[in-house]
């Protein structure tokens, strides 16, 4: 086997520039474990201004910068291509060209994997090239490799993740400081945790992409983006956050993929997390993935979801995996080999406790009419908290477990009844 | 390659009996991932009473029980031996006989690994057999495989673990309910979290064994048991637990293995954990390992440290690793291949904040004399909390970082001065 693997990078920005740092810092350890040396030869960048900071950084590690993709993709000496450009195109075309040229590929591109993962996995298999993407979910947390190695022996019941640092930072501000949504967003933008257009984060789309990938690794099922229920944190009210806290819960943007016994259900939404649940204490921009499974029962994997060095560490662990595959003659074996026919759960099989906030004219008779009506529709109350908010009374309810079909009926009835205002409805995790 | 791997078990008690359960529950997934079927043929037990519950359980899975070790160790059809007997002998001799007969070995025996690990690893290498032991540290948490795979690319600065469920349960009782050490121990025994002789747990010895194994995986250094500083939780006072809480810390039995830059330092002791540190919220019998590293920075792995199914899940992940090794023709490759010359840090290179509880006659002049004396010896105060406890005043101090050599001098001076009573001194982690 070769003693040196040559690496070409597509992109050399925030994430990419960490890769040579990690390779340098852990050189001896990587040499012992991988049995080869990784040398970054070239990096594709938008402009190669000789005086730029980028150029200096590349020069320090002996990396040649280029603005032409073919310099990387058609260089016969390059064994592995690392894609850290982001977005769908031209990343997708570049990855396919690399695979078609027999190069191994590493990417951190969750958008691409969630939307075109199966196509790329199939091409890698056909071309007998390695294709890894540990950094695509939860940055520095080694969750994908843990699912395929250590949890290979376990039957997974659900995977719940705080997989978006921006929204977790914002919700921490809203919970701990009582900040409004707008204030929390402005603060996240000021600190660089949120982009100037934060849509992908606050709408839950970024988390959704990660849950699509996690569903594949947990259940061997290739869920498509439109099969995932999604609600972001836009407009989430501080009243709901406060009432949840008084009831013993912390509101978090949770991505869940769960086996209901009748198929899987994948959803991203703000949910109520019990204050003593391990996910409740995951604060600020940190990420965490909680796995409920038959054997281990509950295990959690916590760490940074983004950042130059954490993401680069995951990428270099993929490089080492490629070296192992070459030694073991298992190139072309997909990152996740487990596959099952896809089965999406219907609403009747999805059960959960739910939180409801319902506005009621400040009138005792009407409150008891409301609880009576809900009881009549099969709702049992786990907790009730009445609060006066301005002109109206608000009844905050945590139900006993209901199925989602029943819940939708209840929400329809409430929406049709002018006596009540449905302020919010969120799922409560266990 | 074989389509079936035959397994023999040494021991079929609390841990062992979970292995066939996991193999049955995850049969299809394991078949896809490992590409082979694992069949448990025989299990060595102390007595094979045909009417016993054990016998019925074994019968359900078609496992033959035997009281003769040679029935397992000399059966040419058995490919893998799983040792779940515990203790050093005869487990060690049995494992060596199995390896000498060319069988692959899996064990959950931390005592044995901490004391004789290198000898067994060397024998496995010589005999070209696989030797795995994921279940030996933190039961169901896949921390060893994560260190060798996902953190292979990272330079580890410290590993801090809550790796003993018994003491963590007791400390949770002491913190949350204000229970005394004796009450907490009695409660842990009543619930089966502590044995009737709890010495190994409460003395920190069990945690020490795990830190020896973690040191090998984190730094490639084979630390011997007597190179680890150890203090248990015996006699820990509720006053210290309470004062710590008022200062913003939770007392936990922490195993730490850290790279000081001048060698590694390995220690097990009750320590103060900041209330907002991820380890602080690890409650009851749960385990957790926090890794501080150059690349990822802070990551944490949380789950059950013991129990039938969690431990069995780790064992079956080892079985799958053996199947992978056979396919990849890498049998005999140690679980951890990273090795560095051992270097133990001296006291002067170990720095930390410390908590001191010092009894002082209830006299203002003497309190200021004490703080003056400590200042004179180079102690800077991060936090001070004076409490009256019975006849005396107690000064609870959190220092700014000190090196351990300086601290020892200070403790000697305090011990020699009859005006003060040194009640306790604990490390404060960051």
Short description:
Chain A is an alpha/beta fold and 430 residues long. The first copy, chain A, contains 15 helices and 17 strands.
The major pleated sheet of chain A works out as:
11 strands, mixed
* CATH A-level architecture of the largest domain in chain A: 3-Layer(aba) Sandwich
Regarding CATH, which class of the largest domain in chain A? Alpha Beta
Protein structure class of chain A: alpha/beta
Shape of chain A: elongated
Q: How many individual β-strands of chain A? A: 17
Give the oligomeric state of the chains in this entry, treating copies of one chain as homo and distinct chains as hetero.
Answer: homodimer
Indicate the percent of residues in helices of chain A. Answer: 25-40%
Residue share in β-strands of chain A: 25-35%
Overall pLDDT metric of chain A:
94
Q: Write down the domain tally of chain A.
A: 3
| Structure annotation, total helices of chain A | 15
Termini Cα gap of chain A: 50 Å
CATH fold name of the largest domain in chain A: Rossmann fold
Low-confidence stretches of chain A: none
The CATH superfamily of the largest domain in chain A is known as NAD(P)-binding Rossmann-like Domain
Which pair of chains has the greatest number of interface residues, and how are they split between the two chains?
A: A-B, 61 and 61 residues
Radius of gyration computed on alpha carbons of chain A: 24 Å
Q: What's the helix and strand layout?
A:
The structure is a homodimer of 430-residue chains.
Chain A: E1 4-10, H1 18-25, H2 27-34, E2 37-44, H3 53-60, E3 64-66, H4 69-73, E4 80-83, H5 91-100, E5 104-107, H6 110-127, E6 131-132, H7 143-148, E7 156-162, H8 165-176, H9 181-190, H10 199-202, H11 205-219, E8 229-230, H12 238-246, E9 249-259, E10 264-274, E11 286-293, E12 297-304, H13 308-328, E13 351-361, H14 364-376, E14 381-389, E15 392-399, E16 402-403, H15 404-416, E17 421-428
Parallel strand pairs in A: 1-2, 1-4, 2-3, 4-5, 5-6, 8-10, 10-17
Antiparallel strand pairs in A: 7-9, 7-11, 9-10, 11-12, 13-15, 13-16, 13-17, 14-15
């Amino acid at each position: 086997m070769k003693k040196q693997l040559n690496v070409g990078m597509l992109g050399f920005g925030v994430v990419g520039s960490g890769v040579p740092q990690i390779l340098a810092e852990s050189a001896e350890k990587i040499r012992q474990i991988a049995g080869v040396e990784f040398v970054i030869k070239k990096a594709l960048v938008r402009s190669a201004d000789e005086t730029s900071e980028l150029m200096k950084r590349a020069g320090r590690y002996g990396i040649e910068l280029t603005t032409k993709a073919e310099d990387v993709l058609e260089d016969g000496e390059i064994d592995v291509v690392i894609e850290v450009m982001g977005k769908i195109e031209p990343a997708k075309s570049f990855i396919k060209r690399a695979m078609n040229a027999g190069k191994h590929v590493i990417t951190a591109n969750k958008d691409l994997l969630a939307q075109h993962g199966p196509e790329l996995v199939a091409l890698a298999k056909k071309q007998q090239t390695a294709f890894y993407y540990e950094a695509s979910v939860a940055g520095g947390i080694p969750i994908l490799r843990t699912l395929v190695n250590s949890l290979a022996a376990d039957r997974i019941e659900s995977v719940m993740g705080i997989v978006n640092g921006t929204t977790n930072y914002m919700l921490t501000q809203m919970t701990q400081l009582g900040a409004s949504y707008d204030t929390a967003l402005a603060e996240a933008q000021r600190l660089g945790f949120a982009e100037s257009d934060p849509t992908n984060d606050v709408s839950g789309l970024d988390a959704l992409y990660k849950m699509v990938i996690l569903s594949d690794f947990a259940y061997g099922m290739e869920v498509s983006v439109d099969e995932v229920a999604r609600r972001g944190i836009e407009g989430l009210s501080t009243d709901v956050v406060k009432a949840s806290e008084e009831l013993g819960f912390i509101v978090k943007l949770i991505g869940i993929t769960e086996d209901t016994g009748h198929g899987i259900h994948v959803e991203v939404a703000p949910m109520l997390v019990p204050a003593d649940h391990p996910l409740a204490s995951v604060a600020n921009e940190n990420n965490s993935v909680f796995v409920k499974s038959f054997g281990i029962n509950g295990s959690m994997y916590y760490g940074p979801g983004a950042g130059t060095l954490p993401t680069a560490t995951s990428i270099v662990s993929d490089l080492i995996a490629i070296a192992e595959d070459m030694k073991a003659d298992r190139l072309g074996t997909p990152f996740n080999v487990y596959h099952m026919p896809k089965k999406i759960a219907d609403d009747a099989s999805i059960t959960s406790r739910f939180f409801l906030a319902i506005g009621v004219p400040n009138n005792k008779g009407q409150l008891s009419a409301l609880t009576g009506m809900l009881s009549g529709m099969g709702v049992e109350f786990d907790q009730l908290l009445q609060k006066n908010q301005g002109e109206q009374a608000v009844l905050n309810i945590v139900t006993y477990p209901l199925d989602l079909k029943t819940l939708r009926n209840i929400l329809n009835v409430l929406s049709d009844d002018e006596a009540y205002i449905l302020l919010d409805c969120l799922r409560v995790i266990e």
